[in-house]
Design a protein that fits this description.
11 helices; Rossmann fold; 239 residues; eight-stranded mixed β-sheet; alpha/beta
Length: 239
């Protein structure tokens, strides 16, 4: 499988950012890592391998980027305010630095965002914040209420968190978001919280945003084997 890794200093997050790519051509799929993950996490944990037939067949090109803000959250870097600031800056870096790199590589195709756990939060946030850049989100086993990990909410978190900002969204951004699709998948096994997916689905539905909540059952835990099955299933449905 063809692989390329790029690194640069992000002026928005003020640290190094890594973007990994696998494949030659096809629909771009940007997979966000779990909380502390890096751009190559999906390869080490064999999620990429479960997409191999789609990558090798030219249906998709897979991209992944460091979970900069998620790592700060997991390690309690700095103050809660700093971590909220970094989350907002991270999304800006995705839209202003990562997406242009992907578009230059693919000829401007709209991107499918995907991720599990905190990665699901980032996939959802990027589609909701930048619906002109992303065509759909595949959100697996998501954690969508980050204020419980941060002890509160300020403007940086408000404008990063779809459960906060989408209810008040109006105008062209909401019109564009209503043309997108959000898939909210969760297991019902260990460490899963499907209620968070239902909460997001209800909120999106109230705003006229197409979405689907899929609960996979008690045998599906908050772990990689669950996501091995989910991600290829939903990528195929969106192609």
């Amino acid at each position: 499988m063809n692989k390329l890794v790029e690194r640069w200093h992000s002026p928005r997050t003020q640290r190094e950012l890594t973007l990994a790519r696998w494949g030659h051509y096809g629909t771009p799929v940007l997979v966000f890592p779990t909380a502390g993950g890096d751009a190559e996490e999906i390869e080490r944990h064999h999620l990429l391998g479960h997409l191999a037939d789609l990558v090798d067949g030219g249906a998709i090109k897979v991209y992944s980027v460091d979970s900069t803000a998620g790592r700060a959250l997991a390690t309690h870097e700095g103050s809660p305010e700093h971590r909220m600031w970094l989350l907002n800056q991270y999304h800006d870096a995705i839209a202003s630095e990562v997406v242009p790199a992907i578009q230059a590589d693919t000829g401007g195709h709209e991107i499918i965002a995907a991720g599990s756990s905190i990665g699901a939060f980032n996939a959802l946030a990027c589609v909701c914040r930048y619906p002109h850049l992303f065509r759909a989100a595949i959100c697996m086993s998501g954690s969508y209420r980050l204020e419980k990990f941060l002890g509160g909410c300020n403007d940086d978190l408000y404008f990063s968190s779809p459960l906060h900002f989408v209810p008040g969204m109006e105008g062209a951004q909401l019109d564009a978001l209503r043309q997108r699709m959000v898939i909210l998948a969760s297991g019902d096994g260990r460490w899963e919280d499907p209620g968070q997916s239902w909460e997001v689905g209800d909120m999106l539905g109230s705003r006229g945003v197409p979405n689907r909540v899929d609960i996979w059952g008690p045998e599906y835990d908050h772990d990689w084997p669950t996501w091995w099955q989910m991600l290829p299933t939903y990528v195929r449905q969106l192609l």
